[in-house]
Design goal:
The complex is a heterodimer of chains A (161) and B (145).
Chain A (H helix, E strand, L loop, with lengths): L4 E3 L6 E4 L5 H12 L4 H11 L6 E8 L2 E11 L8 E9 L8 H15 L5 E3 L6 H9 L22
Parallel strand pairs in A: 5-6
Antiparallel strand pairs in A: 1-2, 2-3, 3-4, 4-5
Chain B lengths: L4 H15 L7 H8 L3 H13 L3 E4 L5 E4 L8 H8 L17 H23 L2 H14 L7
Antiparallel strand pairs in B: 1-2
Classes of the chains: A alpha+beta (161), B mainly alpha (145).
Chain lengths: 161, 145
């Protein structure tokens, strides 16, 4: 069990484990950013990654008592041959609170969790048109990794035998 | 990827100035550090001035200073002042482009262009300054792993 409750005295942001009561605000924030309402996805995501499970982290950031963002990640081992490492696969911040250090506090906290769990590399993946998020991750020191994501339209039927 | 000399010099100049926001640096100081001609640098600084990234401070102790926003200005913003950052298929017709191999080569080169563009557009001057500190502390080879 990994209980997380970390206040950054400089920014005033509190980063803690998400609880089930946070889900409506998480769903609302995601809808605000993505334009998609995905309550089932976030309930399933909370079931899988919430609840302070070892190696799985679903964290929220509070600013002035209001949830201003969330981050989700886990430790994955030997995915595509990579040694165990942390993966961040969701990061959302309320646009009204941007430039308040919320994403930085959440990212630093989840990186601390990864370090304490014994891994020394953090990975993420983002759409290359999502410059805001990519610029944030780069500002934290992230660089292009060794893995290159590849994809193919299955409708083309190219992989048929 | 290879940038034109003016683009590289512009990046070096804005980074040098952004790293020392409380100082004004003379063109000759910058030219000496990067071992370039003063004439070439003067032209680059003039173009950066027109783009409102640097400003000249006149008088004793005058020089140039960075006047943009290092958290917002990306490498792409600087480079595109000096050279077009165009995708492969926008660079005009090349012999063979209309053949079947030309078409598939365009797909591959387009993939490379897209990644290069996204990289330049997502790295701000502030991020570059942090990267510079890290490279200085750890050595350049550590960044290639």
């Amino acid at each position: 069990m990994t209980k997380i409750n970390k206040l950054n005295p400089e920014s005033g942001n509190l980063v803690r484990c998400a609880v089930v009561g946070d889900l409506p605000r998480i769903i609302e924030l995601d809808k605000q950013i993505s334009g998609l309402d995905k309550p089932d996805y976030w309930q399933e995501s909370f079931r899988r990654f919430g609840g302070a499970q070892d190696g799985r982290y679903f964290l929220v950031a509070e600013k002035d008592g209001q949830i201003a963002g969330f981050i989700v990640g886990e430790i994955r081992a030997w995915e595509f041959g990579s040694p165990p490492g942390g993966w961040v696969f969701s990061l959302t911040v309320d646009p009204d609170t941007r430039l308040g250090g919320i994403a930085t506090d959440m990212f630093n906290t989840i990186c601390d969790c990864f370090r304490k769990a014994g891994v020394d590399k953090v990975h993420t993946m983002t759409d290359r048109d999502n410059i805001t998020v990519m610029a944030f991750f780069r500002s934290q020191g992230m660089m292009a990794g060794r893995s290159i994501p590849l994809e193919m339209d299955l409708s083309d039927g190219e992989a048929s035998s | 990827m290879k940038l034109q000399r003016s683009s590289r010099l512009a990046l070096y100049s804005v980074l040098e100035l952004a790293a020392r926001p409380d100082e004004q640096l003379s063109a000759s100081e910058i030219a000496a550090k990067f071992d370039v001609s003063l004439n070439h640098l003067a032209k680059v600084l003039r173009d950066l001035g027109r783009a409102r990234m640097v400003e000249a401070v006149r008088g004793a102790g005058g020089g140039y200073r960075f006047c943009g926003n290092a958290r917002r200005t990306t490498l792409k913003n600087v480079v595109e002042i000096f050279e077009p950052i165009t995708l492969h298929d926008a660079q005009g017709y090349e012999p063979g482009d209309k053949t079947e191999f030309g078409a598939s080569l365009a797909v591959v080169l387009g993939e490379i262009d897209d990644i290069a563009l996204a990289t330049l557009d997502s790295i701000t001057l502030e991020t570059m300054l942090k990267l510079t500190d890290r490279v200085q502390r750890q050595g350049p080879s550590s960044q290639k792993k």
